[in-house]
Amino acid sequence: MHWSDVVAQRLSERGSKHIVSTGITPSGEFHIGHLREILTGDMISKAARKAGLDAEFVFIVDSADPLRKVYAFLDDSYSKYIGHQLKKIPPPDANGCPDMQRFAMGVSYADHFLEPFKKALEQIDVHPRFIDNFDAYASGQFAETSQIACNNADKIREIIERVSGRELSPDWFPWNPIDSNGSIDGIRVTGWDNPIVSWIDSEGNEGQSDVTKGEGKLPWRIDWPAKWAWIGVTMEPFGKDHGAAGGSYDTGKEIVVLFAQQAPVDLTYEWISLRGQGAMSSSSGNTIGPLEALSLVPPEILRYLVASTKPNKAIEFDTGMGLVNLADEFERTTSRDFSIELEKEGLSRRQLVAIEDAKTALELSLISPREETSSVTFRHLAMLAQTKSKDEDVWKSLGIDGSIPQSMVDRLNRMRTWVHSNHFPEELRIAILEQPSSEAMAQMSEENVRLLPELIKSLRLSNWEAASIQTSISSTAKTLDLSPRHAYRALYLCLMGTERGPRLPPILPELDQETILNLLDACLQIKQES
RNA sequence: GGGCCUGUAGCUCAGUCAGGUAGAGCGUCGGGCUUUUAACCCGAUGGUCGCGGGUUCGAACCCCGUCGGGCCCGCCA
Fold this sequence. Notes:
The chain is mainly α.
């Protein structure tokens, strides 16, 4: 059974109405790691609906969280905003400086980072109900839970200290008021008289905060279960950081009982890292944003990556050859006929499970029905994108005429972007040698050598366009009673230094005939000398 | 110190919850393909399941130990 169906089954054991929740703090650039959170939630919701449950998918934007520190991409002038809520501070401009102009137009720090992510979600076909946490506080959604938390400060303290094993300071209180400057740092609660919290800030200013009006926020470990309570969350996937023993899920599970609610079904997922570069980290700039990823990879494939990997498995996102293999695997999967495979007799349990999982992973990945014409492998398209500068030549080569499906246009555009990026693997890059490679020459077989002079002759006479070159190559081979295979191998060794290569006939016309012939002559000379 | 995840074919992984003669894809090798030659089709190759014990008629799977990798326990998906 696919992992999403396993979760759906757990949900069905608890009831028929569900709210699957995810949440992210918009403290910096979003990256593909965040996509796992949201895709996991999306897929669980879909599986739940498939199982006949009533499931809603929500995405909480933690815009009430404070700025923790001046991140590497921010100007030092942000230091004055540390401790201020992300919804209440200006967005950074291109230099990382506070952009007061946009801020005046209503764009907050949180909005700045959230907007591109929302666009990525559109592309990847995820449509959650967005909940802005700051607004939720302001509109009183947290009023009841905040009051309960403050009334039960001792119980909550006991839970956190016991479960997480950390000691809370004597003046700890389950409410972070906002001080006279707008910060929730360095402030001390001095009294609680429902619904008013009295406080004194680091500068000695005193004030009062009404917990029912969002004049502050609950600390994270309480904020989370409070959200479960007021939204009615019954399922939430979260990163392994929250899932550790004594982590926020463990404390939340007990705290939520005070709010007369049951903790949601949980699912801990592993992180996504960049291949060879370790974990995704905004501060080191070691990230790939969802939009950047989507400029290279079709959304279906990003979905497939998450759908086909069990949540507890770490994903290494590889923008090079790994991507090619993933994309080609996806392509093969789309062309499988699962109904036939499943009817086959004598399938072992394992085989059956593997087929079902692949089928479900594919269903969860598809955004729109695939058109027949789109079954071109990544490799093949990579080659076409490199050898044909005009789109129409690509369509011609693929045998698509008439109207070109939009999905194909998108794929080709992405491929061109990828080819021109530094992510594109050298292995797939088409490069003609400038000098004969002695290493490759040593690999020339007797047939290859025999063919070479004839090939040169024939190519010199050809019209230097695809069809003519094709004929030259195969007829030369036939004349010598050899398979065209040998002719191609000879050419690949001479021109590219490899035993195999992409289809030559469409590529050669893009190159200068004399240059190619000179190179071949040089190769021939080497073989004749030896 | 406490805890979580992970180690299976050259590579990426499935199989571990419900123990029953090691699986898939990629790669590699061989063949086919008179022309989508990095495509496609057919075939083959390939693993003492990290290591050591235990339970069992039988262990990749359960139990104990051990080694290696990643991570969490202040914030981070």
